[in-house]
Amino acid sequence: MRLRRALAGVGAMTSAILGLSVVLVTPASAHGSMGDPISRIYRCFSEGPENPKSAACKAAVRAGEAWPIYDWDEVNQPNANGRSREIIPDGKLCSAGRDKYKGIDLPRADWPATNLPAGGTAFTFKYKITASHPGTFELYITKQGWDPTQPLKWSDLEPTPFYKQLNPPTSGGSYQLRSTIPAGHTGRHLIYSIWQRHKPDSGEAFYSCSDVILGS
């Protein structure tokens, strides 16, 4: 009887430990990033965090190590509540102000860029999702003449989003953000996305930086 009780106790303890392990290794925040035009962090993840191909991704890994790149869908602020400009300092927009992702804040002109149509053309931006949540998407573009070799500041972005929508449609594992690329923008730019969830669901927000070349 004592032996059976002891074995039962060991079994219960083992189950509890295994259950705790599952909880610990399950990502608390895994939700998404811009897939087209591909974001910096998703690009580096696609290249392979341990041995990326592009010079910019190699530099990002040197600056912040490889392990943060695996969390490409978790560049977030858990309690943003619509206060992104207040809580994310200049120079740290791409990392959402988190030191963990500091590698993708590196100011350089050789980040791999996606070719997009010229300004004034309609385009469907695709935001890749690993977990879907109600929320509002905003897309911003850098001002004409933006210098990619300088740290990205809020003032480098156009003051109003060129796209803003609550709960856009999804297809093929991505939110479909149909919009017109702002006219008067050509050459190298950066598309900055904010995905703001709303309370009572959550005040969390997600961010991404996508390097693009317009009109090429």
Quickly count the domains: 1
What is CATH's topology name? Coagulation Factor XIII, Chain A, domain 1
- Helix fraction? 10-25%
Helical run tally: 4
Rg, Å, rounded: 20 Å
pLDDT < 50 runs, ≥5 residues: 1-29
For the largest beta-sheet, the strand count, sense and barrel status come to: 6 strands, mixed
What is the CATH architecture descriptor?
Distorted Sandwich
CATH superfamily: chitin-binding protein cbp21
Residue-averaged pLDDT = 89
Strand content: 25-35%
The helix/strand series, from N terminus to C terminus, equals HEHHEHEEEEEEEE
Structural class: alpha+beta
CATH class: Mainly Beta
> Could you give the count of β-strands?
10
Q: Judging from the principal axes of the Cα atoms, what is the shape?
A: globular
Distance between the termini: 78 Å
